[in-house]
Amino acid sequence: MQQQQLKGVKILLVDDEPTILQFLELGLLNEGFDVQTAQDGITAFTVAQQFQPHVAVLDVMMPGMDGFEVCKLLKKLGPIAVIMLTARDEVDDRVRGLTLGADDYMAKPFSFEELLARIHARIRNQFPNLLAEQSIGPFRIDDRRKEISYDGRVLELSPTEYELLKFLVINQGIVLSKAMILDKVWGYDFGGEENIVEVYIRSLRDKLGDKEHRLIRTLRGAGYRVDLT
């Protein structure tokens, strides 16, 4: 489980299914978030204006004003990170949502642990000032000192190894493709080969003592995933 020192992180949950809404609300309250809920788009926008959430978890299929329209309105309020939820996993839906400014997209059904990991990733990427040092499983990330500790031991990492391991750990539980890793760690204009990711992953495994690849897993044809459970 990812533990972070949170300073008033506010989450807005929007879903027209009361059971889902209550389940997510209880789970996120238990994680220490400040949570507000809404069951329709108009209420969501009204609540957001007063609440000013950092992250909105937003269902797409709602009566009246759908999630796409709500996303567009929320983005006009300020730098709100929007994670869209839908029962339909259609490419056109994902493209439309991302075009309107959504920051992430999840298809139902989903696990609470994955949603939590994605919320933490959005906070870390878009609101780093809300986080102090992060403790994620056996890892401790100190961005100010550019240090990562594993099981209490400070790892000797190059700047690129630090950024790669941080990206993997912060997104623990999520499969990250080589293309995504290259974009986030090396930059979109990186002109080298994708194989550089494999080289750095191998080095990190050596430094972590992860000989059996149980910590940094390879999913053939998909990418890499850090497993901390």
From TrEMBL:
Segments forming domain Response regulatory: 10-123
InterPro entries: CheY-like_superfamily (IPR011006), OmpR/PhoB-type_DNA-bd (IPR001867), Sig_transdc_resp-reg_C-effctor (IPR016032), Sig_transdc_resp-reg_receiver (IPR001789), WalR-like (IPR039420), WH-like_DNA-bd_sf (IPR036388)
Residue ranges the UniProt entry marks as DNA-binding: 131-228
Modification 4-aspartylphosphate, positions: 59
Bilayer-spanning residue ranges: none
Domain (OmpR/PhoB-type): residue spans on this chain: 131-228
Keywords associated with the record: DNA-binding, Phosphoprotein, Transcription, Transcription regulation, Two-component regulatory system
Alphabetized Gene3D superfamilies for the sequence: 3.40.50.2300, 6.10.250.690, Winged helix-like DNA-binding domain superfamily/Winged helix DNA-binding domain
Protein name: Transcriptional regulator
Species the sequence originates in: Gordoniibacillus kamchatkensis
